[in-house]
User: What shape does this take?
Amino acid sequence: MATPQLLTARTEFASALNQICAERGITPESVLETIKSAILAAYRKDFGIKEEIEYDVEIDPNTGAAKVYEMKKKGKKDVTPPGFGRIAAQTAKQVILQKIREAEKSAILDEYQNKIGQLVSGMVLRFDGKDIICDIGRGQGRMPVEEQVKAEKYTLNRRLTLYILDIRETLRGKQIIVSRAANELVEKLFKREVPEVNSGAVEIKIVAREPGCRSKVAVVSTQAGVDPVGSCVGQKGVRVQAVIDELNGEKIDIIQYSDDPARFISAALSPAENIRIEIDEKKKTAVVLAAEDQLSLAIGRDGQNVRLAARLTGYKIDIKGIEQTKTKLGKAVKPVRTMEKKEEKKGKKPKSLKKAKKPKSDKKKTTQKR
Assistant: This one.
């Protein structure tokens, strides 16, 4: 930021103005123009103005003395009321304080604009309706309800790791938006805990997440000899456990990414094993056949496992049980066998084995011949 051109500090007013401008990185001219507008507004409120006449305010940049003029064709006329200096000085003070607050807020927003997409340590400061206001250092972050995790309980002074999502224009001006529900929070936590992810040797391709419950993270190695899943899990699971602790016990599945859709879907449906997959790449659909003992694992509680796998892979997944399919085929031929067995039990021959009776017309013909 360029250093503003300051005034010659001959008086207390000029010194104060210079100090404020130097600290906040704003120009004296911009502050003086704002003071002029505020003084004119104060004059209009207390003394009234003629709408057909244009007014102007002049301020001595060294003393801070202000005068109001009516602008006419022949020149300008001083219409400064007696005792107006006190009002002008009070107005100037209010404007300078407002400028300081605006400059501070602008500087903070500029600082956090460069931090969008990063993690920050925060603390719950207060509640604004359903939104949560967090202390994030120099500034304050707003966590809207859609960026909160339902399973988490937020209390005053609770410390959290937050993801800086955006800076948005709201009814209260620009505000820093932070998140606990973003997929990127999981990604950044792995980057912090796993050196291979931070260096780029392991790349996180996709994250599918149901905040507070479970996440699936697809990883791939960019360097030969590096195990992407093992790197993220760490020795005895220490690395992934550090991420789980930050997310208050949210379950995390780390999956090997693959360009082969069948292989990737099979990995995404873990912990289910020995499943058969039929892929339709054009329709982006997959039919998965799983044994009865693997069916519930593939689907997951309330369908969570297959739902996350579908988000991770981008395929619509339909899971069917192999044993269930066989049973349905068996029922189609069962009724015929059952009828034959019932007839045999009664001592009757099955209909298919009975001899056909001779027609009555044949008997009559035989009698006539005799």
User: Anything to note?
Assistant: The CA atoms of residues 68 and 81 lie 8 Å apart. Confidence is low (pLDDT under 50) at residues 5-9, 326-346, 350-359, 361-370.
